[in-house]
Amino acid sequence: MPGGLRVLAVDDEAPALDDLVHLLRADPRIGTVHTARDGAGALRCLDRALAEGRPVDAVFLDIRMPGLDGTVLGRVLAQFARAPHIVFVTAFEEHAVDAFEIKATDYILKPVRPERLAEAIRRVAQNGAAGGPGAPGAPAGGGGRAPRPEPEPMPVELAGVTRFVAPAEVLYVEAQGDYARLHTPTGSHLVRIPLAALEERWRDAGFVRVHRSHLVALARIEELRLDSGRCTILVGGTELPVSRRHVRELRDLLVRNARRPT
């Protein structure tokens, strides 16, 4: 691809990460190499790249890491609407079945040999860049995986335990700087993702932007209120503002949604 492949290398051990990055940068097919030391850092990097319009084409991912391990992270990545290729880079053979189930592009054992890494890069390049023809998430028949019907759930930390909040559980999302707060009927969760990136991910799950600070599940809107030129909606008992430029689009969406056969 023009400019080379954009890749993310993830490993919690600095020497292993440095070696992997050195080998990746030595390959002429690689354009940009991002790095992360854990699963949470990897998600932040992917979110930034997506928000900037430069999605990562492939993630070279260690498996045994603290917090969000590689297989769990791989399952999350595999559900992205613009799924990157996943290449596991690990010292352990026993996770090959997990890699197969996730439909990873390749599985490399440490220590990484340059020729083995070159073969994995060839597979990534041959199957296409993220979101492009033949890429994961592209329509069936293009050589990659078809898009999944449900957008990916969001990992959240609760008392040191990672759980996943599905889009169907969320009433609305509130922007808080570079973070977003997911509001559900039972509480709220702060996640490390900009609202714009989450809007892109969850659009197919029926979420619409109603304000620069709010993303709302269309099916969860209880009322649309117009009063003296001011528009608000009621979602889960909470009144939220609708910016003027979103009013017409939201009204049209609600009308179309109401007319759908049940």
Q: What class do helices, strands and sheet pairing give? A: alpha/beta
Order of helices and strands: EHEHEHEHEHEEEEEHEEEEEH
Shape annotation: elongated
Percent of residues in beta strands?
25-35%
State the helix count: 7
- Evaluate the radius of gyration: 20 Å
What is the strand arrangement across the widest sheet? 2-1-3-4-5
**First-residue to last-residue Cα separation:** 45 Å
* Amount of helix: 25-40%
Number of strands: 15
Largest sheet: 5 strands, parallel
| pLDDT < 50 stretches | 131-149
Pfam families: LytTR, Response_reg
Organism: Actinomadura keratinilytica
Biased composition (Gly residues): 129-145
Region (Disordered): 128-154
Structure explained in plain terms:
The protein is elongated. It has helices at residues 14-25, 39-51, 70-78, 96-102, 114-127, 195-202, 244-259, and strands spanning 5-10, 30-36, 58-61, 85-90, 106-109, 154-158, 161-165, 172-176, 179-184, 187-191, 207-211, 214-217, 221-227, 230-235, 238-242. The chain has a five-stranded parallel sheet, with helices on both faces. A five-stranded antiparallel sheet has the order 10-9-8-12-11. The protein has a three-stranded antiparallel sheet with strand order 13-14-15. It is an alpha/beta fold and 262 residues long.
In a nutshell, what does this entry contain?
This protein is α/β, with parallel strands linked by helices and 262 residues long. 30% of the residues lie in helices and 31% in strands. It has 7 helices and 15 strands.
